[in-house]
Amino acid sequence: MKALKVNCFIVLIFGLLLASCSSRKYTVNPSEKAAKAADAMAALKSKDLYRFITDWTGVKYRLGGLDKSGIDCSGFALLLEKNIYGHTLPRRSKDQAESVKKKNKSNLEEGDLIFFSFGGNEVDHVGVYLNNNFFVHASTTRGVVVDDLNMPVYQNAIVKTGTLK
C-alpha cells in the first residue's frame, strides 16, 4: 500500500512538472524585466521624454483621466505627444489611430504610436513606442508603465502602428 502511495505521488509530481512547463510561453523574471525596461529608458534619445515618463510612471489608471490623480491610455498618449513633440492628438484612442500615418512595426521609432484591440476588432488601447520593443502606456491594472511589446498579450492585440512625424 505504501509503495502505491509513493508511486501515485511520483506520477502526480511528474504530471505537474509537465503541465507547468508546457504552459510557459513567455516568462521573464521580474528583475530581468525591470532591468530591460530601465535599459530602454536609458537608451531614449530625448531626455525630455525620459523625464516625462519618469514623472508619470506609477500614476494610476482612471478612465477619462487627464492628470496625476488618474489617467487613461489615450490621455497619456495625448499629453506625451503634445508636451514632448508638440503634436495634437484626438482624445480617444480609436480617433488617434485614424490620425496617424501607418508604419510597419519593424520600423518603429521613439515616439511612434502603437494601437491595440483587446476587446474585438476596434482600437481600444494606445501606447507610445520607445525602443528595443519597449513602449510606455497607461495600463488599466498597473497605471503608467514601460512594457515589453514581445509579451504575447500585446503581440496578439496590436492592430496598427503609426507616426505623427
From TrEMBL:
Domain of life: Bacteria
Organism for this UniProt entry: Pedobacter boryungensis
Keywords: Hydrolase, Protease, Signal, Thiol protease
Organism taxonomic ancestry: Bacteria, Pseudomonadati, Bacteroidota, Sphingobacteriia, Sphingobacteriales
A Pfam short name: NLPC_P60
Ranges where the NlpC/P60 domain occurs: 43-165
Similarity field: Belongs to the peptidase C40 family.
Name of the protein this chain belongs to: C40 family peptidase
PROSITE patterns according to UniProt: NLPC_P60, PROKAR_LIPOPROTEIN
